[in-house]
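Worked example 4.2. Below are the chains of a multi-component assembly; read each line carefully before continuing.
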Amino acid sequence: MDRILEVNDLHVHYFSNRKTVLAINNLSLSMDRGRVLGLVGETGAGKTTLALSILNMIRAPQGKIVSGTIKFNSIDIFKMSKHELHDLRGKDISMIFQDPMTALNPVLTVGDQIAETVFKHEKVSKAEAWEKAEAMLETVGIPQVRAREYPHQFSGGMKQRVVIALALACNPKLLLADEPTTALDVTIQAQVLDLMRHLIKNHNTSVLFITHSLGLVAENCDEVATMYAGEIVEYGTIDQVYGNTFHPYTKGLFGSLPDYSEGSNRLKPIPGLMPDPTNLPKGCYFSPRCPYVMPVCKEEHPQDSIIDGHLVKCHLYRRNNDESKNR
Amino acid sequence: MTKQKASQNPFFTSLSRFLKRQYKNTAQFWRQFSRNKLAVVSLILVLLFALIALFADWLYPYDFVTSNSLNNALLKPGEKGVVSYHDKEFEHLFILGSDNYGRDILGRLVHGARVSMIIGFATVAMALSVGGVLGAIAGYKGGLFDTLIMRLTDIVLSIPTILMSIAIVAALGNSFFNLLIAISTSMIPGYIRIVRASIISIKDQEFVEAARCIGARDMRIVLKHILPNITSPVIVQSTLNVGSSILWASALSFLGLGILPPKPEWGNMLSEAREFIQYAPHLLFAPGLAILLTVLAYNLIGDGLRDALDPKLKR
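Applying the procedure described above to all two chains together yields the following structure tokens:
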């Protein structure tokens, strides 16, 4: 299978009054065409920053891509000219934003906003772009006549569908879905996900599915990556990660889900907080909260260990330590 | 061949669609605007004043309203007087009376409307185009340019406006165009600040990021996504300013730096009439009321425009 996206040794920092926020640290990731990769992690783990880096949209004065490369279809995104980037965004890679309430322009009709994208990227007349926009709305289950309405006339779920229509208007090759259902209630969530699944299947789109919800990942994704403090700590197929969880943090995430079969009605949170991204711990970033912490964890940053294509960044699994595999 | 198929030509179909849509938008806009009765009345009033200004020469010849006839001085409204005009003597009805030089007040008001209307529009247009562009760049780009522009703005704002207008007119010389420059210069900082502040508050919202994300360029983002969001404060500011710039022109005329008598202008009429407030108060009321009505009408139109242009208020 061919690689659609390849992120190598990415470092993204945000600079504010003398402090440097290490948002993404030495992150490598790759995606194959037509696959859905789930990206899970706590708030502040750098998930959105990663998505914005893929579009090369890190805000200039504060944020900076310090090093690393991102290749889309083997073309380096950071070496693209401004012009090429404008053509890339929205056409080849598009993004669904987290909050549908703010992702739409309140003073433009939803039809206008979709038609703008189509007009920008496809060689069509304005009228044709408008028709495409109406058709796009229809695919996401919004009647065509409502194309002339403004975002405030839609409910949250409908707005999210408009945002999806906007993102999929030009049949992107890669879709960055940044928590597309976080702001929605469960019934609408199911509808929206169903719709996305359908559209993705029809267009053979690859998706980076960013979410907090492990359940959604299990349902929708082929692969899953766990992110912690700006790095990927575990990566594998759904079966690998869900069936045989390696990293203590991912285990902690699973442990945080309520388990009704055990009859317990208390959640088991991971103790502690995410490390301060301006002052990351010396060794493994998860070591202060890790139940399996070893002396080496405080001293040395763990390297990637790959066991049958299942990647984990933890000292417990260093050099295929078979005896620690089942801990 | 092609001429026969003109109706199926994609250019014509898209053009006709565009016109239809444009018509629909205009119709919708008018429906919204006409809901505000006060605004409609004000619009009619302003249009009426504009028409009067346009046809001022037909209503009252210019040299008639600028020439003295001292035997008709200080007539009460509705009184008649004999005037000699171009070596002909005839009886003339002074509908609003006459001033201390025997000039027809209504005639001077009509010609003053011409000056005031132009001043109101031209100064705001000048200030808005300069201030709007500078403010938009400063707000959207930020950085050194922003700092530079804002400090300059602060400097300009720290000079008392009337003093600056006086300085500009004194430096450039007393003429109508220089009066426009003097007034609009002192309004520019207001536009820079309003546009900059509005743009800063809008540009970090997610939909702007979303627009960048679909590949829109800066120019397009500013013009299509940000500008429509900041129209309401700008419109309110502009219509308020039309009123105040008329007042300013009057104030400068009062100081002898604007439109000087015998040229008719509402402000200099007002300042000339001050001396006769006890004997002939109508001399003050006429231009005062004209200024009041115009300023009020512009403000009400501004309110109506703001409501009609804001899609969130549509029902």
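Take a moment to check your reading of the output against the notes. The longest strand of chain A covers residues 3-16. Chain A is about 30% helix and 25% strand.
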